[in-house]
Amino acid sequence: MNKNLVSFKLTDDDFTALKQKLMEVEAKVNEFALELHISDKHTLQAMGVHSIPFTEYAYMMAIQRKDLVPPFMNMEEFDKDMTLFKQSRELLQMVDIIRERLIDTSAASGADAFATARKFYHEVKNAIRFDLPGAAVIYEEMKKRFLRMNTKTAPTTETNPQVEIKKTDNNTAKAEVKES
């Protein structure tokens, strides 16, 4: 693929403003959001796609038929939980859209930059034939850093493992580290 996928320069001011807004959102979310340990996530009977209609109906009926609500059931907590569930799902949908767009933009701009870097690498390699000063040093340094697609490299402390979250059969999340 030789075409340029993306051509946009995010100004430093806009980048800083976006980071600031994201930090503000994170701070606001941290006022109510939990960070569950993975073992806790596995023990939850989380509400999933199939249990949402059941739970919403039970909530609606509990509000309408107070005579059926047992005295030990805390309707105020049920209301808080349902409201927060709906609100957090709506926020998640919004965040997911932004996240997917950022992933796509990062992938496209990264592919563009990598394609240009490979072109430069080959031009430097050609420049050696014409004895251009410094070309051989640049080429040798780039050659060390060039990742060959068919060769696995030993992980270094600089690598960031890719973690993939998979949904299991019982509606829990399982994190797996993807090997490069």
Brief synopsis:
With 180 residues, the chain is mainly alpha-helical.
Give an overview of the whole structure:
- The chain has one domain (41-178).
- Helices cover 57% and strands 7% of the residues.
- It has five helices and two strands, in the order αααααββ.
- The chain has helices spanning 12-29, 38-43, 52-64, 75-129, 135-145, and strands spanning 162-167, 173-178.
- It has a two-stranded antiparallel ribbon.
- α3 runs antiparallel to α4 and α4 runs antiparallel to α5 (135-145).
- The longest helix has 55 residues, at 75-129.
- The chain is elongated and about 90 Å long.
- The model is unreliable at 156-161 and 171-177 (pLDDT under 50).
